[in-house]
Amino acid sequence: MTEKVFNLFVAAVIGFLLCCGVYFYVTEDKPNPATTTPATEAPPTPPPANEDQKQKPPANEQNQQKQNNEKDKQKEQEKNTQNDENNKQKEQDQNKDEKAKPSDNLPEVVWGIDSASETTKDFYACVKENFGDPVVFGRYIGGREGVSVGLTADQVKIIHAEGDFILPIYNHFNDATGYDNGVAHAKEALKIAGEIGIPEGVAIFADIEPDYPVDAEFIKGWFDTIVGSKYKSGIYGVFDPEQALFKAYQEAGKSKAAILEQNYIWTAAPSVGVTSESKAPEFNPSAPEGSLAWGWQYGLESKSCNIDTNLFKRELVDVLWGP
């Protein structure tokens, strides 16, 4: 073989090998270049299913829920009703407090009389002609032979026709000792008061005369029984510091504070003599300290008309039997 042929052969082999190398290079697997995929929005959240589309609870759960709702509604109605009643009661109490009282248009101290005699039109004429025009008239309830003529319905009409307030006096005893005795006489006073029609809230006065034996227990028995009824408690007597009544009342007030706070005193001390309305003294009653001494019988046993003369704080008429 010649050298020329040999060179051609070598060149052909080399060319073949180069072609094979190019082929394998081109067809070799290569990683794809990294690409960025555009971000896409998340699909919107579907709206909540319609209530009607929700699965319904079992029937027993529905009934229980219905019962609970009815109970809650009933409780709310009861609460509203109670609130309405409370507000109505408060309004009534406020109106009651604001209601005009009989004493509102009276002077601070008013003039009055008391008498054991029968009340007639002629009697009133005598009083007005000789003494004045009373605002308060003390009268005994239930007759006591030889002592006092009891108040009657006809006499009540005469007194109220004059525009006067009746101060009821109970005098059916001559011994003011013992708790049970006080209770018994208070019950009798309540009985008589009911029979003659004395209205609720009126004070009834026990007449304890200066010669009667008296103790704190009687006062407490009287007070407890009267205030336990629809009436208010009062006591008449000579509340002079030297009198047994004064000391008994002090003792009763110390052991039962409500007596000082709620019982009304009509005292016959000091006694300065009967006068006409125009010549009445300044209001100056004698009574235990801290007591409701709202009445003062300053003059005893007039020579005409058979009356005693008195002064009263105007507030007392609010607990008397008015026209």
Automatic annotation (TrEMBL):
Organismal lineage: Bacteria, Bacillati, Bacillota, Bacilli, Bacillales
Keywords, sorted A to Z: Membrane, Transmembrane, Transmembrane helix
One Pfam family hit: Rv2525c_GlyHyd-like
Keyword Membrane on entry: yes
Chain residue ranges for the region called Disordered: 32-109
InterPro entries associated with the record: GH (IPR017853), Rv2525c-like_Glyco_Hydro-like (IPR015020)
Stretches with biased composition (Low complexity): 56-67
Keyword hit for Membrane: yes
Domain Rv2525c-like glycoside hydrolase-like: 137-239
Record organism: Bacillus timonensis
Record field: compositional bias (Basic and acidic residues): 68-102
Membrane-traversing stretches: 6-26
Identification of the protein by name: DUF1906 domain-containing protein
